[in-house]
Amino acid sequence: MFDYAQDMGKETREAILDAAEALFAEHGFRGTSLRAITQAAGVNLAAVNYHFGSKQALVEAVFARRIEPMNRERLARLQRWEAAGCGDLEGLIDAFAGPPLELAGEPRGARFVRLLGRSYTEPDERLQAAIRGMYEPVIERFKQAFARVLPHLPAPELYWRLHFLVGLLAYLMSGADLMRLIASCRLCDPLDVEALKSRLQRFVAAGLRAPVPREQGAVPAVRRGG
Amino acid sequence: MFDYAQDMGKETREAILDAAEALFAEHGFRGTSLRAITQAAGVNLAAVNYHFGSKQALVEAVFARRIEPMNRERLARLQRWEAAGCGDLEGLIDAFAGPPLELAGEPRGARFVRLLGRSYTEPDERLQAAIRGMYEPVIERFKQAFARVLPHLPAPELYWRLHFLVGLLAYLMSGADLMRLIASCRLCDPLDVEALKSRLQRFVAAGLRAPVPREQGAVPAVRRGG
DNA sequence: AGCATAGTCGAACATCCGTTTGAATCAAGT
DNA sequence: ACTTGATTCAAACGGATGTTCGACTATGCT
Question: Residue A148 belongs to a domain with what CATH number?
Answer without folding.
Answer: 1.10.357.10
